[in-house]
Structure formats: structure tokens, C-alpha cells
């Protein structure tokens, strides 16, 4: 950044923000090139259905987000554009996929083992009648 020439068309205060934005755009461009280098069918064949859904959702979200940014650069209020509803719809599906993934990771409860564990861990007092009967039988002999 120190060797960069500052353009007089915008305020100097936002130069760092614009440089960071330019770097981000370059990173997005590199990721898109990488993603586009592999055919979609080839990529999806290697993945299970849940992973395929994740790839599709991330792709749709990225595309719509980029369109949102484009609208903003054109002076359009993206908050009132249908792209906002589409982004929200995709976000709902992303949450559903996350719930499914979390359920798969969650431990399963073995009810039989849990009930045996609890049953053995609880203290059970001996019935009083059984001890008295045992003592009476011993004293009479």
C-alpha cells in the first residue's frame, strides 16, 4: 500500500477501505476461477446429497450476494429489491441443512443402557419387614 499511487477522485480517508475492497474482489475472482475450473457434475458426483445441498446453497447465496453488491454500486436500494427475499429464503434452507448436520453429529441415546445406569445408581432401602422376619427366625432357633 505504501507504494500505491493515491487517486484524487475520492477522499484520502477511504483509501484503505478501497484497497481492502480491491483485495477482496481479487480473492473472490481467484475462488471463482478455481470453482469454475472443475465441472459441476464432476464435483457433485464426489459428494453425498447433504454435501451437494451445501454446495448448491453456498453457490446460490454467493451469486445473490454479488448481485446485491452490484445493485448497491448502481445506486439501487437492494433492501427493497426481490434479491433480499431470495437471500432470506436461501438463509432459511442453509439453517435447515445446518440442523440436519447437527442432528447427525449429536450422540444417540441408548435408553436401555441409560435406564440400567440410573437404576443401579439409585439407592434402594431394604424393606423393614424383611429384616424383622430374618431376625425373628434367628432368635427362635
From TrEMBL:
Which subcellular locations apply to this protein?
A: Cytoplasm; Nucleus, Nucleolus
Q: What is its main location?
A: cytoplasm
Q: Which keywords describe this protein according to UniProt? A: Cytoplasm, DNA-binding, Nucleus, RNA-binding, rRNA processing
Q: Spell out the InterPro entries in the cross-references.
A: Exosome-assoc_fac/DNA_repair, Sas10/Utp3/C1D
Any one GO CC term of this protein is: nucleolus
| GO MF term list | DNA binding; RNA binding
Picking any one GO biological process from the record gives: regulation of gene expression
Q: Which residues form a coiled coil?
A: none
**One Pfam family named in its UniProt record:** Sas10_Utp3
PANTHER family assigned: NUCLEAR NUCLEIC ACID-BINDING PROTEIN C1D, SUN-COR STEROID HORMONE RECEPTOR CO-REPRESSOR
Share what the entry says about its subunit structure, partners included: Monomer and homodimer.
Protein function: Plays a role in the recruitment of the exosome to pre-rRNA to mediate the 3'-5' end processing of the 5.8S rRNA.
Family named by the database record: Belongs to the C1D family.
Q: What is the recorded name of this protein?
A: Nuclear nucleic acid-binding protein C1D
Q: Which species does the entry assign this protein to? A: Theropithecus gelada
Amino acid at each position: 500500500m505504501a507504494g500505491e499511487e493515491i487517486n484524487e477522485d475520492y477522499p484520502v480517508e477511504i483509501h484503505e477501505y478501497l484497497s481492502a475492497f480491491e483485495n477482496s474482489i481479487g480473492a473472490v475472482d481467484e475462488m471463482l476461477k478455481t470453482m469454475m475450473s472443475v465441472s459441476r457434475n464432476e464435483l457433485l458426483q464426489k459428494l453425498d446429497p447433504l454435501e451437494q445441498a451445501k454446495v448448491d446453497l453456498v453457490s446460490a447465496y454467493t451469486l445473490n450476494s454479488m448481485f446485491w453488491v452490484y445493485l448497491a454500486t448502481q445506486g439501487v436500494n437492494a433492501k427493497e429489491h426481490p434479491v433480499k427475499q431470495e437471500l432470506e429464503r436461501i438463509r432459511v434452507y442453509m439453517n435447515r441443512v445446518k440442523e440436519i448436520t447437527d442432528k447427525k453429529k449429536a450422540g444417540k441415546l441408548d435408553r436401555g443402557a441409560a435406564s440400567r445406569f440410573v437404576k443401579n445408581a439409585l439407592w434402594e432401602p431394604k424393606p423393614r419387614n424383611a429384616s424383622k422376619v430374618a431376625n425373628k427366625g434367628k432368635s427362635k432357633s
